[in-house]
Amino acid sequence: MRHLDLLARLARPADTKIVLLVLDGVGDLATAAQPETALEAARTPNLDALAARASLGRIVPVAAGVTPGSGPGHLALFGYDPAAAENDIGRGVLEALGLGIPLGPDDVTARGNFATAGADGKLTDRRAGRIPTEECQRICARLNQALADFAGARVEVVPGEAHRFVLVLRGAGLSAAVDDTDPQALGVPPLPPRATAPAGETTAAIVARAVVVMERAIAAEPKANRVLLRGFSKLPHLRSMAELYRLRLGAFAGYPLYRGVASACGMEVVPCGKRIGEILETVAARWSDFDFFFLHVKQTDQAGEDGNLAAKVAAIEEVDAALPRLLALAPDVLAVTGDHSTPAPMKAHSFHPVPVLVASPVAFADRAERFDERAAIAGHLGTFPSRELLGLLLAHAGRLEKYGA
Amino acid sequence: MRHLDLLARLARPADTKIVLLVLDGVGDLATAAQPETALEAARTPNLDALAARASLGRIVPVAAGVTPGSGPGHLALFGYDPAAAENDIGRGVLEALGLGIPLGPDDVTARGNFATAGADGKLTDRRAGRIPTEECQRICARLNQALADFAGARVEVVPGEAHRFVLVLRGAGLSAAVDDTDPQALGVPPLPPRATAPAGETTAAIVARAVVVMERAIAAEPKANRVLLRGFSKLPHLRSMAELYRLRLGAFAGYPLYRGVASACGMEVVPCGKRIGEILETVAARWSDFDFFFLHVKQTDQAGEDGNLAAKVAAIEEVDAALPRLLALAPDVLAVTGDHSTPAPMKAHSFHPVPVLVASPVAFADRAERFDERAAIAGHLGTFPSRELLGLLLAHAGRLEKYGA
Prior knowledge:
The structure is a homodimer.
Chain A: H1 3-10, E1 18-23, H2 38-41, H3 45-53, E2 55-60, H4 70-77, H5 91-98, E3 108-117, E4 123-125, H6 133-146, E5 154-159, E6 164-170, H7 201-217, E7 226-233, H8 241-245, E8 249-253, H9 256-264, E9 268-269, H10 276-285, E10 292-297, H11 299-305, H12 309-327, E11 333-337, E12 354-359, H13 373-377, E13 382-385, H14 389-396
Parallel strand pairs in A: 1-10, 1-11, 2-13, 8-9, 8-10
Antiparallel strand pairs in A: 2-12, 3-4, 3-6, 3-7, 5-6, 11-12
Helix pairs in contact in A: 4-9, 5-9, 10-12, 11-12
């Protein structure tokens, strides 16, 4: 039996609350040039106190050596096998869900960038100078006007942040088998949308016509005069965590992508701010409404991507300072971890295991002095696939029946 | 998705070099009678310095409790599941590849020993007094003359070292379903070649006739008057590492068996000497030709098989002394490990996990004081299946794309 099916079979309701606090990309590296990881360098009295009575360990998001994107990293934290084809969430779907766009099973979405090309059609800026969000909204409104009479499918664009938008196609017989039009390079024109399989040919032709309509409507824009599309995808049929585990799940994430994944897994997305303080305020207000709280802090990952150890340390210390407010809610199980490592020296997601801490009255007390990568190696939880964490959280919350007599 | 398929999907070219230095059988035991393992007893200042900035861990070649042969041990190091039926390399094929014999998909090979039997046909020496290699070559030449007119298949023998040779059968409809003729005991005659399945009956009959021809030709030899055959096998269809991972791979091994496995996995076998100094000389000369260098040192295993801890320590110290020459080539990733443990107290391969060290600019620095079995337990890499090492090496070399958005 697959792990997820086993857990679903054993899941039972209980009067316990689980908090999964994800510090995006929190895992870090110790190297000759950076002798301390962000967790090692941070002053974290509250996490340290928690570590003394919690179990520590490390999670491997996808597989040894594999660097996960945010989608697979979170799917694994939510108990799904991120390497299974049926759990593949495309970039377009992630972005669409994150923007709160309702998607049906037949709808096709793509992530869009506004871009700048010269008179020769060659790209000079793949992000249109990162135009302000308000500008993006204005341009998207104009595109939707231009697309109002479009034939063959209902086509809509939804503005995201800065130069980003989502393209949604609705209609019968649409396929996601369409290749990116973003050439991922400057000095060349955008690519034509090509079918990646025969089933995608009709949709590719529709997209090609839609791109013509859109680019005609923005031809006079100084910066955002072209559109680049990638990650054509449909909603995967993820089994709902609410049904699988008999939980009421709330997602408290300030950024679209994470709200998107949580929603696709059966969580209720609760609007909230982007910093831990704002997030905890919203959590406290909705404490009675859920059994499972997914809290997402983005700043650790952003700092890691910037190669800014000091900012990553500050983000961790901000969480540590807010921790007493979370503990005051008295969750039965509190897990602190990341969806992947984003080591500052690498300025990118990485494949390294991620430290995890699980506090609960039935957690083995590791008596670690710190919550960091080195302490995690020796922890009671060991090193295990991220997708097994959810079962451990349910177990620590008394939400799994005994298996067999 | 299987691990190997996932890695193949993510593999990308890069301008980085990976060295996998295999100290055959390096893993050892600490017991009451042998308080220090070979790695613990050896004076290894260079490996120790490397350990301080590298990640340590332990690999399990096949499965918990399973003692691997050299074939499975190396297949696992190269990323294949050694327990999967499709990855089974027979002894005959291993030896044939190691001798550089070109094998087609229909050819059947067996490992041969010259042996001595008395007038009563009973074996008195299963290795014919370990006759010199030149003697073996002379006898094989005579056998090939005798087999020149053989009907039913083209049959050839190729001399190996000392009393060893390889039998190759070429022709249509041949099967490897033939049992060993080596009784693995003295005082009994060689076994007749028997089919292990109906498909092998024709081939078994051909082998029986060939053995008669061969033994008639050497009947007057004082020592090598019989032949013992084992490991009838065909080339397995291993997917090429070169294609899977987009690497140029060079194998630098002084002994046939290891060259054979490497060749079957898609590596170019580079002729080289048997000791680390000679191997490194060849590696340096071919440094620009490959991305992945498999270096094989046999002496550690030989000493372990002999139960000679001092010799095993000396072999390790010889590698340590040569290490600066390898480091001077500045590989981006350097892994040091073994294909299995060959503890001196056991005088044989064993099932114990094998310490592994991975050095790279993105390796988590464990700050270990030594590279040995005890330090490896606490290392960042943890304990994992040998077949996952290759993915970690690719990851440390920046040769894997991110998985998902």
